[in-house]
Design brief:
alpha/beta; Spore Coat Polysaccharide Biosynthesis Protein SpsA, Chain A; ten-stranded mixed beta sheet; 12 helices; globular
Length: 299
């Protein structure tokens, strides 16, 4: 059995904004971890509810709370926490979600078992008051080690930043979060995957709460913008071949158009479908999508 000094310290980084009604339950799920050697950095983005009061009500010296006013870019908050933190391993959390009690322990053991892997990520599921709504990876047990860069770019392996645990030394070679966009998780994860092998834990260890206040619900187009810009950059940097990148971009732009249709924005949807021809000039799929958008049938 390892002594307390030999058990690795895990840094958990949690940006938050006006989550007083959820953050207490989230902190409890961290305190319930079977791996107890952790430090939690709560980076408050200028909440004007009683988030601070809820956090400070926890008498736990492992919790560190920061509030420097409204910034609006989580990459800035996460980078500050990374620089302040001391953990050998780093992981991330949202202040409205929950963890399985053994998540930290499972990922630490996995990274110790596979020293050539720079990071690990797990399966996850969405939940709301009615229960589990979606499990993201089809396999739900076992693990896999490998180079998943292209799979993540394609979306074949869907990775949420909250499921990722990485070694601290990976930050030095893979860089910090970008600070010029609201959403930068995809570029951070794929940049990490372009430099390091990973281990997938197919068990669902992260529980993503669905509610009306989810940021992705109101800013979904910004998420797409970051995704498409990142793939374009990898094509320019030759991390992805032009053929692979164009195929990914074609599907991404088409899906963005479908998203606009779901939000009743027909003009933006048609613009996306037209833009898709840039990546596959001979495809008839954009034409079919445009016709369906105009006549009002399902895309």
């Amino acid at each position: 059995m390892k002594s307390e000094k030999e058990i690795p310290l895990v840094t958990i980084i949690m940006p938050t904004y006006n989550r007083a009604h959820f953050i207490g339950e989230t902190i409890h799920s961290i305190q319930a971890q079977t791996h107890a050697n952790w430090e939690l950095y709560i980076m408050d983005d200028g909440s004007d509810d009683n988030t601070k009061d809820v956090v400070l009500s926890f008498n736990d010296e492992r919790i560190r709370y920061y509030n420097e006013g409204r910034i609006g870019i989580t990459g800035v908050l996460k980078n500050k926490a990374i620089r302040e933190s001391k953990g050998e391993f780093i992981t991330f959390m949202d202040s409205d979600d929950l963890l399985a009690p053994h998540k930290l322990e499972a990922q630490v053991k996995t990274l110790e078992q596979y020293p050539n892997a720079g990071f690990s990520f797990t399966n996850c599921h969405d939940f709301n008051e009615q229960g589990i709504q979606r499990i993201y990876l089809n396999k739900q047990q076992g693990m896999e080690v490998g180079d998943f860069f292209q799979d993540i770019c394609w979306g074949h392996k869907l990775v949420f930043i909250q499921t990722v645990m990485l070694r601290r030394e990976c930050i030095d070679t893979s860089a910090y979060f970008r600070e010029n966009r609201i959403f930068t998780d995809f570029s951070f994860i794929t940049n990490l995957a372009s430099n390091y092998k990973a281990v997938i834990l197919y068990e669902s260890l992260f529980f993503r709460r669905l509610h009306k206040g989810n940021n992705i619900n109101s800013n979904w187009t910004l998420d797409y913008d970051e995704y498409l810009e990142t793939i374009e950059r990898y094509k320019d940097e030759k991390k992805l071949s032009p053929e692979v990148a164009n195929n990914i971009l074609f599907i991404g732009v088409i899906n963005c158009g479908i998203g606009h249709l779901k939000h009743q924005n027909k003009l933006m949807a048609i613009h996306c479908f037209i833009s898709a021809w840039k990546y596959k000039p001979l495809s008839i799929i954009p034409l079919k999508k445009i016709i369906r958008a105009i006549v009002g049938t399902s895309a």
